[in-house]
Design goal:
There is one protein chain. This protein is of the alpha/beta class. Helix content is 37%, strand content 15%. The mean pLDDT is 90. Strand 1 and strand 2 form a beta hairpin. The protein is built from eight helices and seven strands.
Length: 191
């Protein structure tokens, strides 16, 4: 939704490029690679003016306990761009906001880059549970969760290969090597 495209992308039978920004926002929730946080409280960064409780969403991103230890809890000011939070807290706050304002299509650009693998796994399980019938498009360089996904789109040099994790492990040597090196820690090119 940030760049022009060629071809056709339809949502609800409507061409995406023909929709206004507001109309697109009714279909798509987006979390960019760089969390965009306001110089406001944690709670207000998630709610964006809405009035639902945020606890469920903070629990989903494994952040509720950390916030309870902050002197002002949900009313903690994050500073300009979230400067008072760690990188992982910034990303999880932005992800909580994305879930709080969930749409039919959820696009997440590398939401787990600043969290450890156990937290990544827990958040992904919660995300899948909360997403319901939404489509989740996860953009990531970390492949450890990919075996759980319905489809994987491998992109390189403007070309795409689409399939299951198992199919890509079988048919795409580069994908297989990256996955194995990330999950086992070694160069497994000898297969």
């Amino acid at each position: 939704c940030e760049s022009p495209y060629s071809g056709s992308i339809k949502i609800g039978g409507n061409e995406l490029s023909a929709l206004s920004d507001y109309e697109r926002s009714l279909y798509v929730s987006y979390m960019g690679h760089q969390p965009e946080l306001m110089s406001d409280t944690l709670e207000n960064n998630i709610r964006l003016g809405e009035n639902k409780d945020v606890s469920e969403y903070l629990q989903a991103v494994c952040m509720l306990n950390e916030i309870s230890e902050m002197p002002n809890g949900l009313q903690t000011y994050v500073g300009s761009g979230g400067i008072r939070l760690s990188g992982g807290q910034q990303a999880r706050t932005a992800l909580a906001r994305t879930l709080y304002n969930k749409r039919n299509i959820i696009i997440l650009d590398d939401p787990f880059s600043a969290v450890d693998r156990l937290t990544e796994q827990a958040i992904m399980e919660n995300l899948c549970h909360m997403a319901g019938n939404s489509i989740i498009l996860l953009i990531s360089h970390r492949l450890s969760l990919f075996p759980k996904f319905n489809k994987v789109i491998w992109m390189k040099n403007g070309r795409c290969q689409v399939g299951t994790h198992d199919l890509l492990m079988r048919d795409n040597k580069e994908y297989m090597n990256i996955y194995k090196s990330q999950t086992t820690g070694g160069d497994l090119d000898e297969e």
